[in-house]
Design goal:
Blueprint lengths: L2 E3 L7 E2 L3 H6 L7 H8 L10 E3 L19 E7 L7 E4 L1 H10 L12 H4 L12 E7 L5 H4 L8
Antiparallel strand pairs: 1-2, 1-3, 4-5, 4-6
The protein binds zinc ion (ZN) (2 copies).
Length: 151
């Protein structure tokens, strides 16, 4: 992921190492926080740092996402008329993959959609899309024990 400051007299480029940010507990849902932390130190105007709006081509592995209270994998049924979702922890997904016979279950997130064998409980479809959900832990709701996904 590459960020470029849009001011012509700056044009600072940053390419944060997303793997490192993930290890520190930051995910893609927190791009706005990342911009804030990497902003240019201008006094005359706001920072013009912009990130490519494309999802970062980051290779997240399941093992990077395990045992993080604020991270869930969201499986969305790909059937247009269904859109049922379910949430799972990375460690639960790895358990399931091991039960499916994968001795090394440390897959990349983008591989999961084709690996999941379970059928949708709503429409019996078997096509899923997968994304990583990061909860912002700096909210009152989170600190008071609320969770943004069904447990
Ligand atoms: Zn700048
Ligand atoms: Zn479905």
């Amino acid at each position: 992921m590459l960020g470029i400051c849009r001011w012509y007299d700056c044009r600072r480029r940053v390419s944060p190492d997303l793997g490192k940010w993930v290890e520190r507990g930051y995910g893609q849902a927190l791009v706005s926080d990342m911009v804030r932390m990497l902003r240019c130190n201008r006094v005359d105007t706001d920072c013009g740092l912009m990130f490519d709006p494309e999802p970062p081509a980051v290779t997240l592995r399941l093992s990077q996402l395990t045992w993080k209270a604020n991270v869930r994998l969201r499986f969305s049924c790909a059937a247009v008329a269904c859109k049922a979702t379910r949430f799972a922890t990375a460690e639960a997904v790895m358990d399931q993959l091991r039960r499916q016979g994968h001795r090394n279950a440390d897959f990349r997130v983008e591989e999961l959609a084709s690996l999941m064998k379970g059928a949708c409980r709503t429409c019996k479809g078997t096509a899923w899309s997968v994304d990583v959900m990061w909860a912002n832990t700096n909210t009152m709701g989170w600190r008071s024990g609320g969770r943004p996904w069904p447990t």
